[in-house]
């Protein structure tokens, strides 16, 4: 067993997000970039300026045949817990491997 | 000065069937938003009453939490997104966006010369929370075209670059 439950408390948000996206979307590529520094001082992130804004680029076979709105919703749904615990915004690029040209 | 106040006082209307008063200024809408002189600060075209007791009760309804979207809120949002071809729920106003993503979408819509309405979700917490559920979308801005959720900032930017946004807007304007 991986004991992921025990370790999740100490994982960074970025690591948790990667775990969730990689396993649920069977992503063949995943980049997460913490861009919170660009939004420091933003009205909504007064108290915690850490790990609030991310750029995410994910390539998944599960996006096949899905509209962009649906793809983004899939990502948002996986990150509900994070969004409810201080993650403020994510910028998403969601492609299939065919579309990404790789 | 009192321009915004008097405009809304003179022209407040309540959407039929809406569970709380949603004040819409009846200021004649210019056909081309971007043709407005830059210096003229247009008052927010949508006004959500925050002071009335009825508005307060809606906030309580929405604060019920977790139990799904209140039917009254759903009905109101149906009316709002259906009452204009293009509706943008954003942080801040057209003239003073309070968030970079909202600002981006306003700029895109302006560059395309389409008339659009905006609602400031920062001015109404019930609206903000209700919309997240209504749209199944956790962040803002949220763009609606022809009553349909079109997307957030990323999708709007991508669709703008691909020309899909222009196409969708053209279709909406002709319908």
From TrEMBL, chain A:
Location within or outside the cell: Plastid, Chloroplast
Family classification: Belongs to the BolA/IbaG family.
An individual GO BP term: iron-sulfur cluster assembly
Lineage: Eukaryota, Viridiplantae, Streptophyta, Embryophyta, Tracheophyta
Organism this protein belongs to: Oryza punctata
Protein name, per record: Uncharacterized protein
InterPro entries (alphabetical): BolA, BolA-like_sf
Record-linked PANTHER family: PROTEIN BOLA1, CHLOROPLASTIC, PTHR46230
Domain of life: Eukaryota
RNA-binding as UniProt keyword: no
Keywords: Chloroplast, Plastid, Transit peptide
Any one of the GO CC terms: chloroplast
Major location (coarse): plastid
From TrEMBL, chain B:
Region span, Disordered: 31-50
Keyword Transit peptide applies: yes
Entry GO MF terms: 2 iron, 2 sulfur cluster binding; metal ion binding
Source organism of the structure: Oryza punctata
Protein name per Swiss-Prot or TrEMBL: Glutaredoxin domain-containing protein
InterPro entries the record matches: Glutaredoxin, GRX_PICOT-like, Monothiol_GRX-rel, Thioredoxin-like_sf
Its biological purpose: May only reduce GSH-thiol disulfides, but not protein disulfides.
A Pfam family recorded for this sequence: Glutaredoxin
Annotated ranges, domain Glutaredoxin: 86-149
Domain of life: Eukaryota
């Amino acid at each position: 067993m991986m004991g992921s439950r025990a370790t999740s408390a100490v994982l960074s948000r970025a690591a948790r997000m990667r775990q969730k996206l990689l396993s649920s979307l069977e992503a063949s590529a995943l980049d997460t970039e913490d861009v919170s520094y660009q939004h420091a001082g933003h009205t909504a992130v007064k108290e915690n300026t850490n790990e609030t804004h991310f750029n995410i680029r994910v390539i998944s076979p599960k996006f096949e045949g899905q509209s962009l709105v649906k793809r983004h919703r899939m990502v948002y749904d996986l990150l509900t817990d994070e969004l409810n615990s201080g993650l403020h915004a994510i910028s998403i690029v969601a492609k299939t491997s065919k579309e990404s040209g790789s | 000065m009192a321009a915004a106040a008097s405009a809304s006082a003179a022209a407040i209307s309540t959407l039929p069937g809406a569970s709380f008063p949603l004040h819409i200024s009846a200021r004649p809408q210019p056909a081309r938003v971007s043709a407005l002189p830059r210096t003229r600060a247009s008052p927010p075209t949508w006004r959500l009453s925050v002071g009335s007791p009825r508005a307060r009760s809606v906030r309580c309804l929405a604060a019920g939490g977790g139990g799904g979207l209140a039917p009254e809120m759903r009905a109101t949002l149906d009316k709002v997104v259906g009452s204009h071809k293009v509706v943008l729920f954003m942080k801040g106003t057209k003239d003073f966006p309070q968030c970079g993503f909202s600002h981006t979408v306003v700029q895109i819509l302006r560059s395309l010369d389409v008339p659009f309405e905006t609602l400031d979700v920062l001015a109404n917490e019930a609206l903000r929370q209700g919309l997240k559920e209504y749209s199944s979308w956790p962040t803002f801005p949220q763009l609606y075209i022809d009553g349909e959720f079109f997307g957030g900032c990323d999708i709007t930017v991508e669709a703008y670059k691909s020309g899909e946004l222009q196409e969708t807007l053209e279709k909406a304007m002709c319908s």
